[in-house]
Amino acid sequence: MKNKIREYVFSELSEYFKLDENSPSGLVRIRNKYDEIIKEYSVGTRSYRKNGNPAAWIVRFKGNNYFIHRIIWVLTYGNINSQLVIDHLDGDPFNNSIDNLILKTTQNNSRNVRKYAQTDTGITGVSLNVKSNNRLYYRAGWNDLDGSKNFKHFSIKKFGEIEALRLAIKYREEQIQRLITEGADYTARHGK
After folding, report:
1. The pLDDT value given to residue 76
2. How far apart are CA 161 and CA 71, in angstroms?
3. What is the dihedral of CA 24, 25, 28, 34, to 10 degrees?
4. Radius of gyration for the chain, computed over Cα atoms and rounded to the nearest angstrom
5. Which end of the chain is more exposed for a tag (fewer CB within 10 A), N or C?
6. How many angstroms separate the CA atoms of 50 and 20, rounded?
7. What is the distance, to the nearest Å, from the Cα of residue 122 to the centroid of all Cα atoms in its chain?
């Protein structure tokens, strides 16, 4: 499923769905596509990314796929600005408990992300790179509050491999602490 965010309108969704903590997805259908009131039943299909990781609960509605966590948010709080995303605080995209959901910008949502399995250093935001002159270096990366990407490089030739890696890790940690002080919404799960 493409990550296209559709318009979620309370008045329309509330006629077809309602919250139910006993439903695995957190949502039940109360009206069918023929606009008939029906016996409530749990809805939702678990979707997964291409790499097999969990993505989200989805439901087919009026010919389109919708994220159930967004429907739950709309049914609880009203309409959502389509530029905002819903973060699952515990990192489990299948846990749609309203206490586990929070509205964020895409930038802030990325500050609750776990370490990528493919990281070559084992450290979020620190990577081993090759400059155009074929020199190896460790690069510390972070996004500032305005979303701009920033990097600082530590040469393996200059510092040695272990020290260059240590310096890159330390520098990134300092930048993350600075961002938290400035109001960035990093969570305890970030990079773990």
Report:
1. 94
2. 49
3. -130
4. 21
5. C
6. 29
7. 20
What residues contact 166, with CB distance under 8 A and at least 6 apart? Answer: none
The structure tokens listed for 49 are 């990314």
Most confident stretch, 47-51, 58-62, 114-118: 58-62
Locus of tokens 């905002």: 84
Write the burial class of residue 129 (CB in 10 Å: 0-12 exposed, 13-18 middle, 19+ buried).
middle
Helices and strands of the chain, counted as H and E runs: 5, 11
Q: Is the pLDDT of residue 185 over 90?
A: no
Within 10 A of 87 (CB to CB), how many other CB atoms are there? Answer: 24
CA distance 169 to 145: 20
190 three-state secondary structure: coil
3-class SS of residue 119: coil
